[in-house]
């Protein structure tokens, strides 16, 4: 890494000179498919009753993009994962065993695939032993912690100077609101292109809000779902060993819309959606002109959350799905749902990534993005859904109290959670403007 500073003579430049300092980056990917002998169950549906996956449809990966500018560095880590419990990231940082890495300069972004390992299986706080909820498997936790730590170390081994550009477009017909009586859709696709200084493709970061839920509880093989297929296709279209990373957005109430004539197979629906969505991504990517970086900043904002509670409808919806009784709820809330959480922020010139620790409904996500843009003037504000840890669904008070439904029942902080998260996130936005 030091050779790049020597080449450009930064060692003798004043820190506050008003010129663009070069951004350098490393990248890596690692296979995180659990060994079948672990008998890992798939997350996302309680009806699977913790039955183990029977095979591998397509392998699961985690990917890291490590960005450095002088004394600052940041790791953006995406994964074919349902989500991460609060204990996962601290354990990963401890495993990395490098004081230059902390909670502030790493963001974990799961795709929210429903055909990958369950969050409860990698949650050391999960002592409930309920099959629908998932059974903690310490051997899986240790393997994944080791692989994610290795991923970041591998990304730091090779550095190249890069240029960055971002663009957003509206894409129609790819997502729908799954909540009864609601129609709002977030149809914004945002693509960030990172090239080497010589103009060679290096990485592509894709953000879009839609659940990876083509597969139902009946599909029992590991898969990255449509986001995994999309990333593989983008990498094939771009070529040059470019790395495609994906972040889901405010997808709390957003579902994918199957492409016409996809057939009856859920696997085919997911594959076709991913391939065709990759064509949309590639078209955006082709028109982006990366430039030397002008603004690179990051921040981690601690957010106070409302008192923990459960929705009056929980026992009829999420409680029934996950085999819970009222006498278990205090244990569940106190053991698995944190009293505080954090929002992460990454700015790369015109891109502002706001990492939210759960599943925002798309409408409240749009409110946050619009206010962040108005506050900072940054052109492309995106939500990184389920960032770092999963704490809850997050809705507006009207959605929580009025329309209710599954998403409201799996929201463990009452009707003010959504507004409090938006307020806390906007406070953090100020730190990277």
What structural class should be given to the helix and strand makeup? alpha/beta
What low-confidence regions span 5 or more consecutive residues with pLDDT below 50?
1-19
Return the average pLDDT rounded to an integer: 91
Count structural domains: 1
What's the arrangement of strands in the largest beta sheet? 5-4-3-1-6-8-9-11
Q: What letter string, H or E per element, gives the SSE order?
A: HEEEEHEHEEEEEHEEHEHHEEEHEEHHH
What shape does the CA trace take?
globular
CA radius of gyration:
21 Å
Strand content: 15-25%
The major beta sheet can be summarized as: 8 strands, mixed
Which percent bin holds the helix content? 25-40%
Tally of separate helices: 11
The first-to-last residue Cα distance is 27 Å
Care to count the β-strands? 18
Features:
alpha/beta; four-stranded mixed β-sheet; globular; single chain; 28% helix; 18 strands; 433 residues
